Records
---
Amino acid sequence: MTAPCLIIPTFWTRRRGRISDNPLLAYDHPTPIDSEGTLPACLRSLQEVEGLGKVVLIVAATDPAIEHQAEDRVREILEDFPDIDALVFGPAELGSLHRRLEQLEFSDMIHGVSLVGYGAVRNVGLMAAAVLGCDSVVFLDDDQIITDKQFLVRATDGLNERLDDGRVVLAKTGYYTDEDGRYQRHVKPAFADMFWRKEDAFNDALSIVDAPPRIKESPLAFGGCLTLHRDMFVNVSFDPWVMRGEDVDYVINARMHGGDVFLDGEWSVVHNPPKLPSEALQFRQDVYRFVYEHRKIEFAKSQVDLRQVTAESLAPFPGNFLGASVTWRALLTALLKGFTTRREGGLYFRIARVALSEAGEYARQNCNNYFDFQRRWPMLMDRIWDDIALKPLFAGERSMDRTTITGRFPVIRDE
């Protein structure tokens, strides 16, 4: 198998770190445009990795007004790593991709392949891998450090191989650790979380890491330590409408279409995320996410071409948050946090309204969008695979005059 294409999504925000009101743009911890953030350390750790091939850095921003600045910032950082064969994918490359999709009569797919939202950004990475003709793709996040020189070797261990029960491993996840090698987050539950207990469910799900065999079916996935074989990623896309947790959601998508995601107990990466700018807004994203996924699973039951996936089959995480009780549990949790949290109490009360009505309305409006998008995905990937029109650009063989892009015109000064 050839070297996998390594995809690194990187998210950026304004200097003051203002958080977007658009739920699809409220990323967990985007990097301020006037800082380097965690990306240099991530790239530095890549220099020691054996078998490193093409690296694609996908640049997304919380505000369209800074997307070109963010792209420039990433290019500046990348200049310190000339030995890495990297492509920076920003708004200019996205424009070329979208124009090609229009030429191929896939303009209806453009919304789901963009730089807005976790799922859409990851779909861009899958399309880049398809254009480059990659046999496999590995996702890494920009706040992670690789300490194992054999990281990519382990990433493809067992990939496209058949297990004893006859299933083929086409999607495999590792797991995150801290610098001391711990992979479970031990957080004492707060009183306000009595109806939520997300950390407990997550820890329970991770108990399979040390259990035999090395590679086993998993109810969750880690988007920063995830490898997909081409037979998986050309057939199953990420969901552009899920607010966060698109990696765990991919497990659901894979199962619906007859596949599985497996966890490799010997493959991991060090995760060093910055401090969250707002725990309340992360909770808001989770409310949208779980209400949407509950609706999505229910809607899928009416689709005769899909394998049925139940919340129970995904327990303890995310299954414990995909049942019909998720709405009232989110509402009570938001109210309890509003009464017990000083700094973000008002925001939690507003999130209670989200849980009561807005998240449900979002789910009703969008739960069928993914299935319409997904049904066209294999056809799109087949047309774009090794595409002769886009490959020179994605391979770095064709340059682009970026000064002609809106927002990049040079300043004209009077003599």
---
Amino acid sequence: MSKRRATRVIHVGKVAIGGDSPIAVQSMTNTDTRDIERTVVQIKGLEAAGCDIVRVAVIDLEAAAAIAAIRAAIAIPLIADIHFDHRLAVAAMENGADGIRINPGNLGGAEKTARVVDAAKRHGVPIRVGVNSGSIEKDLLALHGYPSADNTEALVASALRNVQLLERHGFDAIKISVKAADVLTTISAYRRLSQRTDYPLHLGVTEAGGLIAGTVKSSVALGILLSEGIGDTLRISLTREPVEEVRVAFELLRALKIRERGPELISCPTCGRTRINLFALAEEVERFLQTMESPLKVAVMGCVVNGPGEAKHADIGVAGGNGVGIIFKRGEIWKKVNEDELLPVFLAELQNMEEERRGQGKSATKE
């Protein structure tokens, strides 16, 4: 693991980005922002999963106005995603957006960009300059060619050009993203950009795909960059419910030992010795763990033969048998349970351990 790249610090609401601040996990709602109730419900689900910052699409002035009510109902910072219309950026900030994501080059010229920057200064709002391989200016494509793993100059040059549009107005509360759908192009672009600026970088692979393809592509690209010390915020882009993006993001950060949230699940891939429905059991346990905050190691194993031994480092685990199962702690059998009672008993004990740890944390705080 390389030392983290030094970047300047900006603030999106209460969340510090860059410097030695924790790498922030972002996601984006897929609701119609004008539907305030549904959008708030989805954001609260993201909050429960640990999301640090959320982004919403602002497609018109009604959506920009809805930000006021949404912002008042949620706890995490809210970023307005803007394309083409500078009026939407200004209106979003006037209604309480904590940050905006724009491509300054497509706002309609210097005068309109200046209006957006003036509003950002007035409201103390940072701007993410977001460029992807499909939004590069024609002159840069003609000069440098379409981005590839071996040639990302057009992508990087576009980002830096748009940053300069903001800097000319005396604005530097900026973070940058240079996304591509191709993994190797994304890696190459961020490496190149990180050598040419000290602004914080938001990592992501655009249009990554569904759960499996999107997780693999994003984890490869972002895992490599993070291991090289590149990146200050990230989004795992999936064609799934947004909460899945947050779950994958935290597992990626945990795997790299960068940041941990909640329990770690250890589960076996099953084999011919398995006599219980381990897939369903593991899925239910994993869903429950998303509601927990304690950094426990939790194991779900297919059989009692190897379960406690292979997972003896787990704080608590469950292993199936033929019509029965065992619950073990640190490799020692704690309780034997009938199969139909195994899941509820296990979840109840997980809840007990969570409450005990929370109580210990409160006691330590008082002392």
---
Amino acid sequence: MNYNKITPAVMDAVSHIVQGNVFTQQEDLICFSYDALNQKYYPEAVAFARTAEEVSLLLKLANTHLFPVIPRGSGSGFTGGSVPVMGGLVLCLTRMNQILTIDTDNLVAEVEPGVITGEFQKEVEKRGLFYPPDPASLKFSTLGGNVAECAGGPRCLKYGVTKDYVLGLEVVLPNGDIIQTGAKTMKSVVGYDLTSFLVGSEGTLGVITKMYLKLLPLPETRKTMQAIFPSMDNAARTVSEIIRSKIIPSTLEFLDQAAIRCVEEYLKMGLPIHAEALLIIEVDGNREVVDKDAEKIEALCLQGGADTVMTAKTEEEAEGLWKVRRSISASLLKLNPHKINEDITVPRSRVPDIIRKIVEIAKKYNLINVNFGHAGDGNIHTNFMIDRNNRDELARAEQAVSEIFQATVAFGGTISGEHGIGIAKAPYLSLEIGDKGIEVIKRIKKAFDPNYILNPNKIVT
């Protein structure tokens, strides 16, 4: 697809639509040229819309003059989903940041896409309610971005991912039409499920301008535990035993030995650096049930070969246990300045197999590798710590990633549990869905966006 540059006359029209909230200076464009993938592509301009009507007019203008439009929230994604690979106009939605209603009778919230996830959670919890999706970026990522990527997080083992909480959407289609999908009700089977089509579509099929989100009652209490295992196999078997015992923790996280060593060097907390695995387990709900579940989990961990199991007695102690998990990413930077972070997912029982395979591949390519993630649902964040300026090392890392993706699919898994496809994983998509699957995606894209103006060259080219 050949796109047109944005002319001065068109730029004036953009500026008029968004009431002057458009930026073209180099120092402004830099901030919108990358996401957490850290590959830079510069837009020609950045516009901040405040209403669905403004978004509609911008997309109609883009179709008339054939320039790309790239929706963007906080730009915290790991796969390049919000970077302007074809130039054009970045459409930033962070000023559409109102929580419009929190309906405590029907447990539904109506929100704009620029609302920060963590701030939304605080507001609903003030009313005794609960919004479970909790990506690691919740303190700065936006709900619109979470919906576009179908974000997950530690709590999805028990509560599910973002798509499980989206009842309906207001969406501006690529041609500028504004539509409503779904409903504010818990049930709705009217026509095709367009809401599910759009959740996780990474801004390629429409621009989300409003969301109707399902809420839950806030759990009465929670307990947080940490278990240390000398064997990764035993840790993985214990995870399966916990689920088999009919206990579904709200979170069940793991760190491998390399991650434990990194965090210990970073925090100096006295973590056992010779352990092969560390589990962080949290249960929530009714106080009596939580106490029983925590006791049972502790017994299962010890029976499964854990050296020690520690249960937090206070909120401060619980926060201390979670500090270990939250400090991983920062601690890794001591190993090398950059990282390639993938989020593969395999069946729980195959976690030891894929970890062994990852370690084998890392040794083959002489790479520093660290693994952590959501053991309860088999979602592993495997990290290669590299120097991107070292072209040989970068090439070896890319070969390693390709082999890990192949192994993941062979183990019955998926190449992306919660980060999406964007540009980083697009070359590997056929491994999982095949060429015919890619053709279906292309036909859907063309039906929604015949001029290919909305977030082009993402997911498939």
---
Amino acid sequence: MKTAAYWELYAGAGVIAAGISFLLTPAVRFAAAKLGLYDTPSSALKTHKTATPALGGVALYCAFAATLVSLRFATSFPTGTLRSLRGLLIGGTLVFLLGLVDDLKKPRGLGFKTKFAVQAAAAAVLLAFGFRIHFIKPDYVAEALTLVWIVGITNAFNIIDIMDGLSASQAAISALAFLFISLQRNEFYVNFASASLAGAAAGFLPWNFSAKRKIFMGDCGSLLAGFLLSAVSLGTHYSKVNNLGVYAPLIILLVPMYDTLFVMALRIKKGLSPFLGSNDHFALRLERMGYSRRQIVAMAAGAAAVLGICAFLATALSEVWALCLYLMLAAEILLLSRALARVAMRE
């Protein structure tokens, strides 16, 4: 099949996933409301004011899985693609079910040790299907770092899911960035998975923003999105121009990664466990500074889009200019962190 035809399939995957997600989300909301499955503001750490139906991640998972399955019967995948997508679906299903159980057990939820154990098992599934960091040797070090990467990004999207549209918009934009970079190299499983995830997240967003028919993604959605993105980030060769291009995923996923590390650092500084909740998120600090939630989500989405462009440049520029780009971003992060850390938060 010609490359142009694959481009049409990628676009079709995004449209199909968006349509399924958009149509299925209100049905999931109706079912969640009927079953009394609400996310209630039961503690000071909850940022919403009223009980809201959860489990929007069910629609996200169904849209993603159904799109890949439908494409499987509509076309012949290139060699190796089907095996990679099968591993992605098996691991993704395990993480989705973990998040679903956690959502159903709210407000208490599962302990972080249980979550880490299941996420590590899902990461092991990906390793068994050949997903791993390729530029680090020896292999056992690469596999250990791959496991840390998958579990870390999986939780980063869960941690950032504190405002309407924040985690889902980051997932959609990050997936599009991976798709854009991978298009030039025809990494087929990355392209199909990225397009499907971007569409599924985009189809969910209108309902997440809705004032009258709002639904939350829940842990089953945010954990799934993070897991899928950690997996697609391992599937492409980022640059033939310089050796620093392999770090492009750090730029693409910088917003959720930054929030995770920023929150953990502040919690440790306060003498608290980094695995317990707190109000130290960058988004909450921006809100404390006077920005509205819509403005914060828009700023974070804009930052993710700019970072996606920076990631592409890091794969296309010479090694010297790529290094300058990384150093510039590091300086910006330090300045932002200092400004946010000075914001006084109510405990």
